[in-house]
Prior knowledge:
Elements: H1 6-20, E1 27-31, E2 43-49, E3 67-73, E4 76-82, H2 87-90, H3 93-105, E5 110-119, E6 129-137, H4 159-171, E7 176-183, H5 192-200, E8 205-207, H6 211-219, E9 223-233, H7 244-253, H8 255-269
Helix pairs in contact: 1-3, 3-6, 4-8
Amino acid sequence: xxxxxxxxxxxxxxxxxxxITRIKPKIAVILGSGLGDFVEIIKNRxxxxxxxxxxxxxxxxxxxxGKIIFGKIDKIPVMIFQGRIHFYETGNLEKILxxxxxxxxxxxxxLVVTNAAGGINRHYKPGDLMLITDQINLTFENPLKFIPxxxxxxxxxDPNLISIALKVAKSNRILLQQGVYCGxxxxxxxxxxxxxxxxxxxxxxxxxxxxxEVLLANALGIRVLGISCITNMSTGILPQKLSHNExxxxxxxxxxxxxxxxxxxxRTIT
Length: 270
Ligand code: HPA
């Protein structure tokens, strides 16, 4: 395996970031494919290209920007990770977990993970937002192998944050589905048979991110809220084929509703 010394890398990365901003964010947001418009509402933003940050893993996927944005929503200091790196890009779990470790270094207490996902639940439609209530990890990876703490995760996704999100959605008349997110490695989209299997074991949506990051955040004592943007119906659920373009196009269309939901959740949490 490639030489990847987590602690010394984190030290170099955080020293660099600290030389640019002294902000101490309490909330971190990881933005999924095409959901980048949200950053427009951040006041006094300081944007750092992840390529500038020593030891920071780089993303290669189209539509991914690779930035960390620091700033405030109202008076709340936040850090936003735009352009996550996927497991299939490097095959290295520690690289996809890097933002979580960085967030922990900065003292983040709440993590909002967002992603683009394929809808498996037949009541969903492209453009829906889904509050993640639980997850199925089918990546066959587990980040807890890197840290000693092992506990039973009765609720990986924080119940209080879930109820806040539901209230916010209701009062802003945002349709918010609730469901189980199934995380796979990718990079190929699933077959119809795989989707049927995921449906039978209880998945409502499928995507290629998030599950390992959430396991780690939870083990590090960070409370997690998860929101999926259903960008397409999964293979076999509808007759037409999937493309990455469709995923980013639909995500762009829901940006407004998504940003509203996220902002109002952050305002209500604090
Ligand atoms: N499958 C896996 N990942 C995805 C999908 C999908 O259909 N849509 C967006 N991310």
